[in-house]
Amino acid sequence: MLFKKRIRFLQSGRIAALLLTLPLVFVSSLQSGVVFAAEPATFEEMQAEAEARKLLPIQSNEIDNWPAGPQVGAQSAILMDANTGVILYSKNIHERLYPASTTKIMTALLAMEKGNLDDTVEFSHEAVFSVPSDGSNMGMDEGESISLEECLYGVMVASANEAANAAGEYISGSIEDFVALMNKRAEEMGCTDTHFTNTNGLHDPDHYTSAYDLALISSQFFRNEMLCKISNTPRYHFEATATQPDDFYKNNKHKLVNGEIPYEGILGGKTGYTDNSRQTLVTCAEQNGMRLVCVVFKEETPDQFTDTAELFDYGFHNFQVLNISENEEKYNIESTGFLQIGNDVFGSSKPILSIDTDSYVIIPNTISFQDLDSEIDYSQSDENRVAGIEYSYNGMYVGSAYLNLVTDNASSYEFDTKMTATDVSVEKTETEAEPLQDTIFINIKKVLVIILVLAAIVITIFMVHALITNGRTAKRRNNRIKRKQKRRSRMRTDFDDFDF
User: Is 330 known to be catalytic?
Assistant: First the structure.
C-alpha cells in the first residue's frame, strides 16, 4: 500500500520540485561555505566513543550512601519518578544535546492537551513537503486527512515527521506558531536548557534539550493514560477512509514496547535518531508504586534499550516508596491543644491540620524516613494549604507534602466559616512554636472531660481531708474517754479505804 503512495508521490510533482531545488542547494552551499557532513564513523570508532562515555562521571553516584548506578554508554542519562520529580540516577542531565524524534513527545502532549481526538487533521503542502521524503513518515499526501487520534498514532508509533507537522498546524494554525507554543510550554514546565525549532526533531543546531528537561516533559506525557496507550502500541493498523484511501500497518521500533526486549511494567516510550544526535530514547515503566521515566541521549544501538532496562532495574530494586503522612513524626499536628474541627463538637471532631495522604518520598532501601532532612515553607498561595514540606537526603530531593487546613462544609457548629490558612500555625517540636492567631475552634468534648477530671480531683481532696479530720477528732474523743475512765478508777480506789 505504501508503494501506491510512492506512485502518487511521483504524480504529485514531488520529484520535479526536488529536481528544481537541487541546483539551488548546490549553489547556496558553495556561496555559504557549507561543508557536507562526513561519512558516519566506523563501527569500531563508535564503540570506542561509547566505551569512553562509560567513564564519564555519574553525579548521583557521588552522593553519600546513595545506591551506585550502572555505568552506561550514554552521554547523558536520567531516571526520574514521573509523579514526584525525584531523580534516582543522573549523568550529565543538564547538558544540551539533540533530542531527534523524542521531540515528538512534546508535540503529542500539546496536541492531546489542546485538541480533540475525534477532530480531523488535514495534511497541508507544508506539512508534507517541508520534511525529507526519506525520513520517518507514514506516507501521507497533501490534501489527505485523518482523525487527531490516528495522527498521534502516526507521530508516536510510526514516528511520522509529516504527522507531527500536521498535528502542529491543527493546534496552532501554522508550524511556526506551534513551535512557539512548544517553547512556551517547556518554559512553564521549568525547562531551562531547551529550545525547539520544529515539531519532529529533524536536526537543527538550535533545536536542543537536556535529559532533565525531556524527563520533565515526559513526566507530563506519561501522566496521561491515553498518551501511555498510544506510545505503548507495538503495531498500529491505519484503515482506509474516504479521506485517506490506503490500508496499512506501522510498527513501533521501540524494542521495550514491541516486546523484542521484554520488560515488566512498560507504559510506553519514543525512539529517536539522527547522525548528529545518535540514538536517543525515552521510556516509562511502572513497578512497586513508582512510575519511572528513563531518558538516554547519544547512545549506540542496541545499547539504548539494554541500558534503559538496566537503569530501570537499578531504580526498582534499590529504592522504596514511603507515604509521608504515615511516617511523619517531626511536625506535631495535634499538640496545639483544642485546635479541632468537625460536625459534632461532642465526639466526631478531628485535627484542623493534616498532611495530605497521597504524598510520598522515594528513598534508598538502606535508609529510613527518620534519616531525611526536611524544610517547611509557609509561602503557599492556596488558601487551604498552610505550608509545604520538602524532604531531602544528603542534599538530594526525595519528595514533598503539604500541610492542609481541614474544612468541613457540613458542620453543624460553625464558630467561624471564614477561617483561612493564615489563622493557624504549625508547631515543630524542634523549634519554638509560633503563636496562633485570631480564630480557633474549641473541642467541647475535651473541655468537658477536663472539667470532670478536675471535679473528681477536688472531690477526692475533700474526701481525703474529711477522713484525716475525722481521724483526728476520733483520737481526741478516745483520749477524753480514757482520761474520764482513769479519774473514775482513782475515785473508786479512794473510797475503798473507808469502811461504811
Answer: no
